[in-house]
Every structure is written in structure tokens, then in C-alpha cells.
């Protein structure tokens, strides 16, 4: 429960397209969806429509903060279609659009199921790297090793590389957890419980890292944070965005509120109302109750004045 993707809106969109389309159309699926969604879209279109449709999977690989650069200079463009004549022709038509600025060797054409699964797997692999280095950080804390030094040594191996090997509070955003749980649900529905559990542990490790992080704060303040001021720098799930979806800061605040800490929050891009909305939802408290524990500040300096601890939760450049 809670792992399957909500496909309500794509079905409504498909029915709308079917209702208004008068001539043959190519329908391009851009969102990250479970595999075989294109097949379901095609069924809806052809059952309710007055013409023929070719449905392609063309998942986007744009990251917040670098989306324009990712679009203009992508690592690859993935186009999945059915392997019949109509599907191949539709894929070639879409490929010709990208060919205006993307080298042909970076445009990959696959069957539609491979395209849909590739996006889920790509995000799962990236999240695995984050959870892996965060698991290593726990070993480092116990052993006296430096996780940054370990990450640097491991990342210099050309088979591994340095990206996504920075220990942190944990990954957030709208994609990683959603896509991994989508993959978990897919594995369970296909009778692959061991594979499902393998991927599910990526999310479990991420949750554990946030718990460990708060535990270190409490331990560092003599095992109590009651009425102590904690400066929380950063509320977005990563730098260069105002997006707070699945942000680790939300869980940190929730746990610290449970411990009766006073938290001063500063983030250069996140709107105040977004912070209040996220925290009231996470804590199940009304805004007045949350305001007893939370202060939103206009600068990092204001948040840090008189604080017992400074928590850097988002890697904004101004905090370096």
C-alpha cells in the first residue's frame, strides 16, 4: 500500500486526447510511470478515440537546478515504442525532433517497456549510491575513518566514479523514493519478493540515516534538546531549488519538535508558507502549535544567533 503510482491523471488526459483528436496522433509519455502504462494508454485511446494513435515512452532525465542544461546537452535521449511498423515510424519521427540539437548517437530507441523501466532503474541506482555512502558514514563514525576520504578514494576508481558519493542527511525530492517504491511494487506484483526487498532497503537506509542524524544532534547536546535552540540551515531537498518534497529537513524538524527543541530555519529560496504547510502536515499539528517550536529567519546569521547547535541540512553554496 502506498507504493503503486497514482495513474488517475494520465487516464483523464488520455480520454481527453481521444475525445478531441480527429486525425492520427503520436502521444508521448513523459512522466515516470510503471512499465506497461503506455499499453494501458493505448487501450484507452483506441477504445474511446475516433482515429489511430502511436504511444511512445520518452522519459525525461532533467534534474532540478540544472534542467535547462540537461535538456540542451543530455547524456542520452530515450525513446521507446512498439516494435511494429507504426511504432518504429513514430519513434523515428520523435528522434528527428531531438536530432535538431542532440547527436544521433545519444538518441536511444528501445521497446516501450524497456524505456519505461529504464527511468525507474536509473533513479533507483542513483539513490542506491546515496544510501550506500550514507551506510559507509555509519561505519566511519564507529571506526574513526573519514567518510569524505573514503568516498574520494572509492570515487577515483573509474568503474565507480565520484558522483552521488557525498554523505548527507539522505536523499529527498519527488523522484527517488517514489520511483524506488514503484519498482518495489512492480517486483512484488511479479512475484519477486527478494528483489522487492533489495530495492526497498535503499529507502529504509535513507530513513535510518535521518534518524541517525537527529540522534547525533541530541547526543551532541548532552542527550537532550528540550528548549534548546537549533539553527537549521536549508529546508529545500537540495540546493538551487525551492522544492521541499520529501526533504530530509521536514523529518529532522518533526523529530526535533517531538523532543521539544526550538528550531530556527533559514532557506534562501523556500517560501515561508511552504515551510508551515510541510511542517503542519508532517507533525499533525496546526500552524499555531508548530509556531511554538519553529521560527523562520531571514538570514543564516539570524538563525544562528544564540543557537546551541547549527545543522546544515541543504548544501547551499552560501553555507560553505
Summarize the biggest pleated sheet: 4 strands, parallel
The count of helical stretches stands at: 12
What best-fitting shape do the alpha-carbon axes yield?
Answer: elongated
Mean pLDDT: 94
What separation lies between the terminal Cα atoms?
40 Å
Unreliable residue stretches:
none
Classification by helices and strands: alpha/beta
The order of strands across the largest sheet is 7-6-5-8
How much helical structure, as a percent, in the residues? 40-55%
How many strand segments? 8
Q: What is the alpha-carbon Rg in Å? A: 23 Å
- Percentage of β-strand residues: 5-15%
- In N-to-C order, the SSE pattern is HEHEHEHEHHHHEHEHHEHE
Describe this protein's structure:
- With 320 residues, the chain is of the alpha/beta class.
- The protein has helices at 8-20, 37-48, 67-72, 85-98, 112-143, 147-155, 176-189, 193-220, 248-258, 272-283, 287-291, 300-304; strands spanning 25-29, 53-57, 77-81, 107-111, 229-233, 262-266, 294-296, 309-312.
- It has a four-stranded parallel beta sheet with strand order 7-6-5-8. A two-stranded parallel sheet has the order 1-2. A two-stranded parallel sheet has the order 3-4.
- Helix 4 (85-98) links the parallel strand 3 and strand 4 (107-111).
- Helix 1 (8-20) runs parallel beside helix 2 (37-48), helix 5 crosses helix 7 (176-189) and helix 5 (112-143) runs parallel beside helix 8 (193-220).
- The longest helix has 32 residues, at 112-143.
- 33% of the residues are buried.
Amino acid at each position: 500500500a502506498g507504493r503503486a503510482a497514482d495513474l488517475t491523471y494520465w487516464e483523464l488526459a488520455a480520454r481527453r486526447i481521444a475525445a478531441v483528436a480527429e486525425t492520427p496522433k503520436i502521444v508521448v509519455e513523459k512522466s515516470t510511470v510503471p512499465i506497461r502504462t503506455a499499453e494501458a494508454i493505448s487501450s484507452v485511446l483506441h477504445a474511446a478515440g475516433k482515429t489511430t494513435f502511436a504511444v511512445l515512452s520518452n522519459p525525461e532525465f532533467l534534474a532540478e537546478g540544472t534542467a535547462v542544461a540537461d535538456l540542451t546537452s543530455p547524456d542520452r535521449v530515450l525513446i521507446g515504442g512498439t516494435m511494429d511498423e507504426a511504432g518504429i515510424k513514430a519513434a523515428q519521427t520523435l528522434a528527428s525532433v531531438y536530432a535538431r540539437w542532440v547527436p544521433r548517437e545519444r538518441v536511444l530507441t528501445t521497446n516501450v517497456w524497456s524505456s519505461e523501466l529504464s527511468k525507474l532503474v536509473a533513479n533507483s541506482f542513483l539513490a542506491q549510491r546515496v544510501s550506500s555512502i550514507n551506510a559507509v558514514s555509519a561505519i566511519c563514525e564507529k571506526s574513526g575513518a573519514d567518510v569524505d576520504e573514503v568516498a574520494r578514494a572509492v570515487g577515483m576508481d573509474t568503474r565507480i566514479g565520484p558522483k552521488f558519493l557525498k554523505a548527507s542527511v539522505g536523499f529527498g525530492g519527488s523522484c527517488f523514493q517514489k520511483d524506488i517504491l514503484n519498482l518495489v511494487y512492480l517486483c512484488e506484483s511479479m512475484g519477486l519478493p527478494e528483489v522487492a526487498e533489495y530495492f526497498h532497503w535503499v529507502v529504509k537506509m535513507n530513513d535510518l540515516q535521518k534518524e541517525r542524524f537527529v540522534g547525533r544532534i541530541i547526543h551532541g547536546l548532552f542527550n537532550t534538546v528540550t528548549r534548546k535552540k537549533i539553527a537549521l540551515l536549508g529546508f529545500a531537498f537540495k540546493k538551487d531549488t525551492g522544492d521541499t518534497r520529501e526533504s530530509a529537513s521536514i523529518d529532522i524538524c518533526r523529530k526535533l519538535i517531538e523532543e521539544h527543541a526550538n528550531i530556527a530555519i533559514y532557506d534562501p529560496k523556500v517560501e515561508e508558507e511552504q515551510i508551515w504547510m510541510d511542517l503542519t502536515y508532517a507533525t499533525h499539528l496546526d500552524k499555531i502549535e508548530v509556531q511554538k517550536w519553529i521560527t523562520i529567519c531571514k538570514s543564516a546569521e539570524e538563525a544562528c544567533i544564540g543557537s546551541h547547535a547549527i545543522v546544515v541540512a541543504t548544501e547551499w553554496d552560501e553555507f560553505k
